[in-house]
Amino acid sequence: MANNHTLTPAPLTFELPRSLVDRIHSCRGRLGLKSASAVVRRALADFNFAAFRAPRREQCQISVRLSPAQKQTLFHYARLKNVSAGVLLRSALETLSPRIASGNRTGQRGSAANTPPKKAAGRPARKVVGRKPVKKKHR
Q: What is the number of structural domains in the chain?
């Protein structure tokens, strides 16, 4: 059975690079349109969807293992900065210096450069009997 409901205009949210937002505002003034929505509607009306070919994506997906502390830090700052964890991860990778990224860290080579530092020897932590672990609350 066909649906008799008509689609009502509803806001759609897109994340666009600043250059496209600037282009929208530029076209709005140049074309004498009243809103950014009018510019987008015009662009969609003129666009040749049949001839569109998606650009080749230069990205690929990887899976990594993070310590619980690193994962917690990553997601904490993602919420705090109002960005995705992926944005923070890409930014962190982009700030690696070429020397560190090539694995030549402080003169070490191979897998030794990627191993975490060993814990200092000392007395083992005492166990406290009769207490429940306290969970930290995140703000």
A: 2
Q: pTM for the full model?
A: 0.47
Residue 121 lies in a domain: no
Q: Looking at per-residue confidence, does 9 or 37 come out higher? A: 37
Neighbours of 39 (CB within 10 A): 20
DSSP string, 5-70: PPPPP--------HHHHHHHHHHHHHHT-SSHHHHHHHHHHH--TTT--PPPP----------HHH
Q: 75 and 45, same structural domain? A: no
Quote the pLDDT of residue 113: 45
The reply to whether 38 falls in a domain is yes
Q: Which of 30, 50, 52, 51 is nearest to 42 (CA)?
A: 30
pLDDT at 70: 94
Give me the domain span that covers residue 73: 68-106
